[in-house]
Amino acid sequence: MSYSRDYLYNEKNGVALQPIQASEASERTRLQQPVKLQPSWEENNLPEDELNFKNLTMDEASLQLNPPPDKYNLVYFTFLIHGIGVLMPWNMFITATDYFIKYKFSSGYIGFLFPYVPNFMQYLTFCSQVPNVLFNWMNIFVQIGGNITVRIVWAICAEIILFIITVILAMVSSSSWPYAFFYITMICVVFLNMANGIYQNTVFGMSAKLPPKYTGAIILGNNISGTFASVVSIISSAVTSNIRTAAIYYFITALFVLLVCFDTYFALPLNQELHVAMAKGVKERPPYLYIVKKAMMQLVNVFLLFFVTLAVFPAVLSNVNVSDPDFFISSNYYVGVTCFVTFNFFSMIGSIIPTYIIWPSPKYLWIPVVLRLAYIPLFLMCNYQVEGVTRALPVVISSDWGYWILSVTLGLTNGYFSSIAMMYVPGTVEEKYAGTAGMFGGAALITGIFVGILTTFLWPWMIGHVGN
Question: What residue ranges are annotated as transmembrane (predicted)?
């Protein structure tokens, strides 16, 4: 069965209506449409108000009446690839932390204890997420770099160049200049995430002009990105025991993914109408406050979903130790399997489910979103141990199976609810503002990630003091 849109959102009563079959939508359009527009319309300089779409430009109205064809779901897979690409820089750098801590900044390599090692992850997180958040929000109000194509192309090019620099830094010996290496790396991370903030936000704005499944494709790609990074890490470790060589594999893999993103953007134009609509957008300045007020509930849902997830993953889950020494997963693979592989795999599965079922409606999505806040205390009550911290909070969930089940549900709910929340955001406003609403959704997503990561610095103190 084909659909003209994945769902329709009724602003008056705040519920999602059932999908409308393409045949029904076509018949309705045929009955309501008095004249079929010809290409000469624009050449005649007729006022756009003569269209039956008072709030839309001619290009946007044409896009609604004639959705871009997606033969073989190639456009869907293109957005999925870009979803993988926008999170690839973050995933690859956190995967390569052993390369920095145990190789480039190790005392055996540089000859002394490097003072930035204990808080290296905090420095990396700060330099990654602060510019990412700032440029996500700036990209909504200021078209940094020009139109959509220019922004995406320059952002990807900048990321490719910075990853090439990172690979070169991995290949050269930096034992005699560790401080310079640290600062150069952090500067690369800052510029990488400035570009990525523009890239990520623009891709969400672009998908918001299309049916909701394309936004879902980006979220699915985000979750595949984490799974992909975990698999690359495992394969690299299996192929070589040299941390430096494994890190080079990580960065080259990220470089390859970005090149694929670059190629697919040009190799697969959606169609002429879509590119015209995206390039022109809304001619007047969008009413930002109005859009935020209309989309506020879904923006809060997006923020809370990613806040909860990043408040515990990977900081808490990666520090949960095996409780039963006879558990069938050994301590060497426990974190890799129960944390990274489990969460990323089931988050990916959760992102696929909205292709077949979307529930609850926009009006009630906040209920499961708020209930997910319970994950924070639940995971803290597992066997979460931090080096150098004597745990005062009692371990309530001592079962490895219990913890693993929680990890599975965390991934599933993250993938599923984040997908439908992002799909609902553009439907809260008029069609001509959908792109801007989608960009607000992308900014809410990265802000939730950033705030969630910041809260992880509280948990070691909490387990060491609460319960005394």
Answer: 74-100, 152-171, 177-195, 216-235, 247-268, 288-313, 333-357, 364-381, 401-425, 437-462
